[in-house]
Design a protein that fits this description.
Mean pLDDT: 86
Number of helices: 5
CATH topology of the largest domain: conserved putative lor/sdh protein from methanococcus maripaludis s2 fold
Largest sheet: 9 strands, antiparallel
Helix content: 25-40%
Number of domains: 4
Order of helices and strands: HEEEEEEHHEEEEEHEEEEEEEEEEEH
Radius of gyration: 42 Å
Low-confidence stretches: 1-20, 338-351
Number of strands: 22
Length: about 350
């Protein structure tokens, strides 16, 4: 004989008056539920940059390729430097000449100054010697500045890594002529990472106030986050606010571009909770055994909500303080045995 699902459910789980073994129970509790939403976040590098040429020249050496690890200060690009060295040598010669002229002008000024004190020369001659000395001094300063600039241009032919990291893109090849401002290599550091997430407008103020988030990977691992940075403006297209979360001690398995889940607070409300172990499931039905005033377990259908930390939210069917059985398997096994025995007796009578 076929029974409707609800009747079958009661036959299997009924028999509240049957003898039972030891059962455990807990009261239905009312506690605050903090609801949250999960958004997609992206891991990005804090230090990510493109190194550009600061002088002209031909690429002579590229020691590293894409995806290679580089230590801070390592040579990453070498440019042909013959032109820069020639300018440096010329600047050194110009400085030596200017310094020699300055020494001559200084000696001449001292002689004129001594004679001027004895009224052997006119004031015009004294002023001329003084002006010549100032001009010679200016030429020395100008030559020294030109030498420093020439030295910088020579230094620019040797490009070193500004920080430790990996190369992500190579914009030039050996033998290629480059000019100032032209990109050479791009790279990033894996030592400092952060998470970037777009916050819907209606949640932005709450996150700013509570400043609590939870970041997890696809496999459930939770990441430790530090300082939060809120962008003070919304995106004109999506109307979302960007939030940046610094990652503390990023793991070696994290890389820029990876997706993560960012859980942010949405709302708080009061909810009824029961232990997850007290729930009895049969197809689409959810029920619990409730201890009545006589101390007997009675099956009652309920409607459930979210699950959290080994507990189940109850939306309907129970009141705060009611006792629910936390080990219904003891009742289910006893009732199942009783049902099997009843079926056997029925068959014997029919025969």
């Amino acid at each position: 004989m076929t029974y409707p699902l609800a009747i079958f459910f009661l036959i299997i789980l009924g028999f509240p008056g049957a003898a039972i073994g030891q059962i455990n129970s807990e009261p239905v509790r009312r506690e605050t539920l903090s609801e949250s939403i999960r958004l997609d976040g992206v891991i990005e590098a804090v230090q990510e940059s493109t190194v550009s040429a600061q002088t002209s020249g031909t690429v002579q050496l590229l020691p590293y390729d894409v995806d290679d690890s580089v230590e801070a200060g390592n040579l990453i690009v070498k440019l042909e430097d013959r032109e820069q060295r020639a300018r440096l040598n010329q600047a050194k010669g110009d400085l030596q000449e200017a310094e020699a002229n300055h020494r001559n002008a200084l000696q001449q000024f001292k002689r004129v100054e001594e004679m001027y004190g004895k009224d052997y020369v006119s004031g015009q001659q004294f002023d001329q010697a003084k002006n010549d000395l100032a001009t010679a001094k200016a030429r020395v300063d100008r030559a020294r500045a030109a030498l420093e600039e020439a030295q910088e241009q020579l230094d620019y032919t040797t490009v070193v890594a500004p920080y430790s990291g990996i190369l992500t893109k190579r914009h030039v090849e050996i033998g290629e002529a480059v000019s100032p401002g032209q990109p050479l290599l791009s790279g990033l550091s894996l030592e400092q990472l952060r998470v970037v997430v777009e916050l819907p407008q209606k949640y932005a103020d709450k996150v700013r106030t509570e400043r609590t988030t939870r970041v997890t990977l696809a496999d459930g691992r939770m990441l430790r986050t530090g300082e939060m940075t809120f962008y003070p403006y919304a995106d004109a297209q999506t109307h979302t606010f960007r939030l940046r979360l610094a990652l503390e001690d990023p793991e070696a398995t994290l890389y820029p571009g990876m997706l993560v889940k960012v859980e942010i607070p949405a709302a708080k409300r009061q909810a009824l909770w029961i232990p997850a172990s007290s729930l009895v499931r049969r197809s689409e039905l959810r029920a619990v055994y409730v201890i009545d005033q006589e101390g007997k377990p009675r099956l009652r259908q309920i409607r459930t909500g979210v699950k959290l930390n080994g507990r189940t939210e109850v939306l309907a069917g129970l009141e705060e303080g009611e006792q629910v059985v936390t080990n219904p398997e003891a009742l289910l096994s006893k009732n199942s045995s009783a049902s099997d025995k009843g079926d056997s007796n029925s068959k014997g009578t029919s025969e």
